[in-house]
Design brief:
Formyltetrahydrofolate synthetase, domain 3, 25 strands, four-stranded mixed beta sheet, 561 residues, 3 domains, twelve-stranded mixed beta sheet, Domain 2, N(10)-formyltetrahydrofolate synthetase, globular
Length: 561
């Protein structure tokens, strides 16, 4: 495959000879009567089957994360798929767990999230677009609650909700900066109560987080009922259960909770389910899908969004804490070109060999390795290989990793599929089968919320401290008094830097993390801390990817990547 230029992702996906999804299910010993078909190549697995498998022995969990991302790209999802394929190639029974792509990045700047090159999950177009409708269900359930809130205000406001203290926005799965702050209810009393509102992107919805952390419809319904939509004039919290709408929300989400089953280009079973962003949410595949995969496979390869300071930290401190999971090994994806950017090279110059810049950029990788070690987990570095990489540059990465006591393995799965990641797969198996060390969270449950946020900033980001105005600090204390002090922290921070400043690449030092706001996601079971200028509704770039996406005369999608 490497002798000729690699075709576009969509061309490769379209040329693939996908197996019937019943065959993929059979590889995992899932009976045909336990799946709901969505055409020939997609299916949902019944929750009854998920429950039946709960007592089965679990396989080993492999977490794929990455260095701090740059516009150069790291290929975390691609590596997850390639590693899953490679594990099957070397005789292991492996499955993949990914998040579902959001339409926002697909039509914005980042593109899809189904892998790339010869390491993809398919059907690529359907996965990247409407898929099985999970995101539409989440959007609808969220907005049902929004509609009920305003309906309650219009019909007398029996709960005495303060319109100025409503914290529940509306959502849509698209980047649209103009909807961040809006006024609703204009046009007189017949159109409801006039108040300020706004939109978040669907992946930032607490409903998304709840779906991904729930293991049953009963738990889903209970969590939805705990959602705090706002406060009364006496500052008492008001929940979705008080509005008597959480049951209807659960009805809309019942089928969405079922894990989605698809396949890689090489026929590796892949559960693509849930999709919270890791810069504004917890950034992990659903618990129900991950646990099912673990009971059906020897090895499960899953990814957590963005760099290890975001996705991996939240995977461990939120998902593992809530679901009783523990990774056997962590794969940190790095690229020579991204290390160059962390070493000060402009994107336009990345194809020019620059060992010095690679050396300077390695400090970013070093910090991520330190962080994974702090959790008590073994790690391996996957050097996601690009054709412009020189032997000298790659050797620098390998040598520095050896000095740090970690092995770096060159992986060529993008161009060669699973065959290009067999060396990485063997190293993962070796590490996963070593005696487990002492697994640690970044902080204990009993630590105060402010100190939890400070610990993440200091230990994981390398900051000197966190700072916030007196109003925000008072809010931390209020949440403690309200009984939310034992919840984990979900930091909302730029993905482009350890700091809250996206321009500070490499390994920044001597910085503080400014905290703009803090809020409780009582249903999801964590406290969200917003830092810097992070937005929960992204905007489109000057030239969005939507300008390139089209449909041809044969009805085929073009321009999707």
């Amino acid at each position: 495959m490497t002798a000729n230029p690699v075709p576009s992702d969509i061309a490769i996906a379209r040329q693939a000879k996908a197996r019937p999804i019943q065959e993929i299910a059979a590889r995992l010993n899932i009976p045909i009567e336990e799946i709901d078909l969505f055409g020939k190549f997609k299916a949902k697995v019944s929750l009854d089957f998920c429950r039946k498998m709960e007592s089965s022995e679990a396989g080993r969990l492999v977490l794929v994360t990455a260095i701090t991302p740059t516009p150069a790209g790291e290929g975390k999802t691609t590596t997850t798929v390639g590693l899953g394929d490679a594990l099957n190639r070397i005789g292991k029974r492996a499955a993949i767990c990914l998040r579902e792509p959001s339409l926002g990045p697909c039509f914005g700047i980042k593109g899809g999230a189904a892998g790339g090159g010869y390491a993809q999950v398919i059907p690529m177009e359907e996965i990247n677009l409407h898929f099985t409708g999970d995101f539409h269900a989440i959007t609808t359930a969220h907005n049902l609650l929004s509609a009920v809130i305003d309906n309650h205000l219009a019909h007398g406001n029996a709960l005495n909700i303060d319109p100025a203290r409503i914290v529940w926005k509306r959502v849509m799965d698209m980047n649209d900066r103009s909807l961040r702050h809006i006024v609703i209810g204009l046009g007189g009393t017949s159109n409801g109560v006039c108040r300020e509102g706004g939109f978040d992107i669907t992946v930032a919805s607490e409903v998304m987080a709840i779906l991904c952390l729930s293991r049953s419809v009963a738990e889903l319904r209970e969590r939805l009922g705990r959602i705090i939509i706002g406060y009364t004039r006496e500052k008492a919290p008001v929940t979705a259960a008080q509005l008597k709408v959480h049951g209807a929300m659960a009805v809309l989400l019942r089928d969405a909770l079922k894990p989605n089953l698809v396949q890689s280009l090489e026929g590796t079973p892949a559960f693509v389910h849930g999709g919270p962003f890791a810069n504004i949410a917890h950034g992990c595949n659903s618990v129900v899908a991950t646990k099912l995969a673990l009971r059906l496979s020897e090895y499960v390869v899953t990814e957590a969004g963005f760099g290890a300071d975001l996705g991996a930290e939240k995977f461990i401190d939120i998902k593992c804490r809530a679901a009783g999971l523990r990774p056997s090994v962590v794969v940190i994806v790095a690229t020579v070109r991204a290390l160059k950017m962390h070493g000060g090279v402009a994107k336009a110059d990345l194809k020019i060999p620059n060992p010095k810049a690679v050396g300077l950029g390695l400090v970013n990788l070093e910090k991520h390795l330190e962080n994974i070690k702090s959790f008590g987990l073994p790690a391996v570095v996957a050097i996601n290989h690009f054709t412009a990489d020189t032997a000298e540059e790659v050797a620098l990465v390998e040598a520095r990793c050896r000095e740090l006591g970690v092995e770096a393995v060159v992986a060529r799965h993008w161009a060669e599929g699973g065959a290009g990641a067999e060396g990485l797969a063997r190293k993962v198996v070796e590490l996963a089968n070593r005696p487990a060390g002492a697994f640690r969270f970044a902080y204990p449950d009993e630590m105060e919320l402010w100190e939890k946020a400070r610990t993440i900033a200091r230990q994981i980001y390398g900051a000197d401290d966190i700072v916030a105005d007196s109003k925000v600090q008072a809010r931390f204390r209020e949440l403690e008094k309200a009984g939310y002090g034992r919840l984990p922290i979900c930091m909302a921070k730029t993905q482009y830097s350890f700091s809250a400043d996206p321009t500070l690449r490499g390994r920044p030092r001597g910085f503080t993390v400014p905290i703009r706001d803090v809020a409780v996601s009582a249903g999801a079971g964590f406290v969200v801390v917003l830092t810097g200028d992070i937005m929960t509704m992204p905007g489109l770039p000057k030239a969005p990817a939507a300008e390139q996406i089209d449909i041809n005369e044969d009805g085929e999608v073009v321009g999707l990547f």
